[in-house]
């Protein structure tokens, strides 16, 4: 007998919102409960409160795990405004991996990006006339604590604004993205998107070993999963979050 239908939502998280439904005592950050009146769903992969962009929310624990455990390697795309103008060498370093908290990041994809068409952030980014800025597109397959910010800082370009633009279901079809979602707005998955998620959940639970697992000679079952999403969400800064 089939169980109740699952609920999957996409949300464009604005700046200043925790990736959780419970506010933190004495915190200046808002929480998801102010935007999403749907009970029983939780973020599959967090964003820091000071980051923006795409969250997938679900009431299905296995989907949370599937999308956030690095062993599965789902690409997540971030648009990053940074101080300065990164060189080709800096982009290559980001792609090859940099040291973050004593551990090298997994190989990524990095390229210069024309300024994307995004609503102004509230509050706006503070611009300094003497320091130019640039946009990057950075694609990651892991989600360590404040990873994007730590990566750009490691190559000399601090992050000013960070937006998660898409989540790849790795099924050969277009990634889930922010199209049609203004900041603070949410929607249910379309029937076609829901079909794709159901197909994802029918795949074997063992997943694929991550690049880090293989290089370290460890089995997937013995590997720590720093980017795994949880019910609590991102905390004040998105600790143990989804890379943003």
What topology emerges from the helices and strands here?
Layout: E1 8-13, E2 42-43, E3 52-58, H1 61-68, E4 76-83, H2 88-96, E5 99-100, E6 103-104, E7 109-113, E8 133-140, H3 147-154, E9 159-167, E10 176-177, E11 186-188, H4 191-201, H5 211-216
Parallel strand pairs: 3-9
Antiparallel strand pairs: 1-3, 1-11, 2-3, 4-8, 4-9, 5-6, 7-8, 9-10
Account of the 3D structure:
It is a single chain. The chain is an alpha+beta fold and 244 residues long. It is built from 5 helices and 11 strands. The chain has helices spanning 61-68, 88-96, 147-154, 191-201, 211-216; strands spanning 8-13, 42-43, 52-58, 76-83, 99-100, 103-104, 109-113, 133-140, 159-167, 176-177, 186-188. The strands form 2 sheets. Strands 1, 2, 3, 4, 7, 8, 9, 10 and 11 form a 9-stranded mixed sheet that branches. A two-stranded antiparallel ribbon has the order 5-6. A hairpin with a 2-residue loop joins strand 5 and strand 6. Mean pLDDT is 85; it is low at 206-241.
Question: Can you give me a brief rundown of this structure?
Answer:
With 244 residues, this protein is an alpha+beta fold. The chain has helices at 61-68, 88-96, 147-154, 191-201, 211-216; strands at residues 8-13, 42-43, 52-58, 76-83, 99-100, 103-104, 109-113, 133-140, 159-167, 176-177, 186-188.
How large is the radius of gyration? 18 Å
Structural class: alpha+beta
Give the overall silhouette.
Answer: globular
Which residues sit in consecutive blocks of at least 5 with pLDDT less than 50? 206-241
The amount of helix comes to 10-25%
Provide the residue-averaged pLDDT.
85
């Amino acid at each position: 007998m089939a169980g109740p239908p699952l609920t999957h939502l996409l949300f464009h998280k604005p700046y200043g919102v925790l990736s959780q439904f419970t506010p933190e005592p004495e915190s200046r950050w808002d929480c998801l409960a102010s935007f999403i009146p749907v009970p029983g769903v939780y973020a599959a992969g967090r964003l820091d409160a000071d980051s923006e962009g795409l969250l997938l929310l679900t009431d299905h624990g296995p989907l949370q795990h599937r999308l956030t455990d690095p062993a599965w390697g789902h690409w997540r795309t971030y648009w990053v405004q940074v101080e300065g103008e990164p060189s080709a060498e800096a982009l290559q370093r980001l792609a090859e991996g940099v040291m973050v908290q004593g551990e090298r990041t997994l190989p990524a994809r990095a390229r210069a990006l024309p300024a994307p068409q995004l609503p102004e952030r509230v509050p706006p980014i503070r611009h300094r006339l003497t320091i130019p800025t640039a946009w990057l597109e950075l694609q990651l397959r892991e989600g360590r604590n404040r990873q994007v910010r730590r990566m750009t800082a490691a190559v000399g370009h601090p992050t000013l604004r960070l937006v998660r633009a898409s989540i790849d279901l790795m099924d050969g079809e277009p990634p889930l993205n922010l199209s049609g979602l203004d900041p603070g707005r949410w929607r249910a998955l379309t029937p076609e998107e829901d079909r794709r998620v159901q197909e994802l959940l029918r795949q074997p639970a063992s997943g694929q070993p991550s690049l880090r697992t293989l290089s370290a000679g460890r089995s997937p079952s013995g590997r720590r999963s720093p980017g795994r999403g949880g019910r609590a969400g991102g905390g004040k800064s998105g600790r143990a979050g989804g890379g943003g």
